[in-house]
């Protein structure tokens, strides 16, 4: 199977490193890029349950010279199992916290080395699985992928299907992990894939939010889902964006939110406002509802101020 030439891999690595330094990517993409740029290879300490014939490949797929997408999928399972996507959320969240809490002068390599020692107990296998999952995720973006197009055509649709299936799970932990993975996927994939995935997530929110039994009205799943939709807002048409804005306004109005949650709703609203050429016209139906909220005594003073500024734009 053909692979990307080494020289092209080096050029891509340099381009991505410059892109991170210029801040051209959002947090989730930067997390992926940082993991890739700081990657190390461990050939002999893989999980003993991993087939011996694949162990040497497990080290290879964490490098920029990876040749075998099948080996990558074998390690990551393409998030097809609920346990895999939950593990992805667990280690991804833990590494993000390690980055947030690290001293400003620490390099990403130093952060990762400390993370492997403290969180992974010196065993690189959990990180390796997470890294391979990120590799599969990256194939949704032509600037990041390095597998042949024939492999990508099979890999990316399967990945999207698995993630969206988890998003609709009745198990709350699996659902939250699926939405976390979906946000990562939407952050890197092309506009066409963004629209397809976001449309399905929008349907899930509309179907489940009215039902108390679904627990979609609780803070974690609702905001995870809305962050997915705001991430893909420029790939959505005006009608779909109107639905997203209406959901945010209704959530603000119907549920007793604290000041922090109110500000989070307004932050998401602002993304949709900025994505539209004429928001006052596009979101006219919701604007009246937001004006009423702005005058409500139940709105936190800071949230009221932010809402007022939003409606002026």
- Regarding quaternary structure, what we see is single chain
Our estimate of the beta-strand percent is under 5%
Mean pLDDT: 77
> What is the strand tally?
0
From the spread of the alpha carbons, the general shape counts as: globular
Spans of at least 5 consecutive residues with low confidence = 1-8, 11-67
| Helix fraction by DSSP (H/I, runs of at least 4) | 55-70%
Distance between the termini: 53 Å
Largest sheet: none
State Rg.
21 Å
Report the total helices. Answer: 16
* Class per helix and strand makeup: mainly alpha
Provide the succession of SSEs: HHHHHHHHHHHHHHHH
3D structure, described in words:
The chain has 313 residues and is an all-alpha fold. It contains 16 helices and no strands. It has a domain of 149 residues. 69% of the residues lie in helices and 0% in strands. The chain starts with 5 loop residues before the first helix and ends with a helix. InterPro entries: ARM-type_fold.
Give a short synopsis of this structure:
InterPro entries: ARM-type_fold. Helix 1 (6-22) packs across helix 2 (27-37).
Question: What is the strand and helix layout of this fold?
Answer:
Elements: H1 6-22, H2 27-37, H3 52-60, H4 69-76, H5 82-101, H6 108-118, H7 125-138, H8 149-167, H9 172-188, H10 191-208, H11 219-231, H12 238-254, H13 259-274, H14 279-282, H15 284-294, H16 301-312
Helix pairs in contact: 1-2, 4-7, 5-7, 5-9, 8-9, 9-10, 9-11, 10-11, 11-13, 12-13, 12-15, 13-16, 15-16
């Amino acid at each position: 199977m053909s692979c990307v030439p080494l020289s092209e891999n080096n050029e891509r690595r340099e381009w991505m490193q410059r892109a991170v330094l210029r801040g051209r990517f959002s947090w989730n993409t930067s997390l992926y890029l940082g993991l890739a740029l700081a990657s190390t290879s461990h050939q002999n300490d893989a999980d003993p349950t991993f087939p011996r014939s694949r162990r040497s490949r497990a080290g290879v797929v964490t490098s920029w010279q990876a040749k075998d997408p099948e080996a990558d999928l074998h390690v990551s399972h393409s998030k097809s199992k609920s346990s895999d996507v939950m593990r992805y959320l667990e280690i991804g969240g833990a590494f993000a916290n390690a980055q947030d809490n690290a001293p400003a002068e620490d390099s990403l390599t130093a952060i990762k080395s400390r993370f492997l020692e403290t969180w992974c107990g010196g065993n690189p296998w959990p990180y390796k699985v997470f890294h391979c999952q990120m590799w599969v995720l990256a194939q949704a973006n032509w600037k990041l992928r390095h597998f042949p197009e024939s492999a990508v055509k099979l890999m990316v649709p399967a990945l999207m299907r698995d993630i969206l299936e988890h998003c609709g799970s009745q198990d709350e932990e699996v659902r939250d992990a699926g939405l976390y993975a979906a946000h990562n996927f939407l952050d890197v994939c092309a506009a066409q894939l963004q629209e397809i995935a976001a449309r399905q997530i929008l349907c899930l929110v509309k179907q489940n939010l009215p039902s108390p039994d679904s627990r979609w009205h609780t803070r974690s799943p609702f905001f995870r889902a809305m962050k997915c939709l705001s991430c893909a807002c420029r790939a959505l048409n005006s009608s779909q964006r109107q639905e997203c804005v209406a959901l945010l306004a209704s959530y603000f109005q119907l549920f007793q939110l604290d000041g922090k949650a109110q500000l989070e709703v307004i932050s998401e609203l602002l993304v949709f406002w900025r994505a539209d050429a004429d928001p006052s016209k596009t979101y006219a139906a919701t604007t009246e509802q937001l004006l009423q909220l702005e005058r409500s005594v139940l709105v936190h003073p800071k949230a009221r101020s932010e809402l007022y500024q939003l409606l002026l734009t």
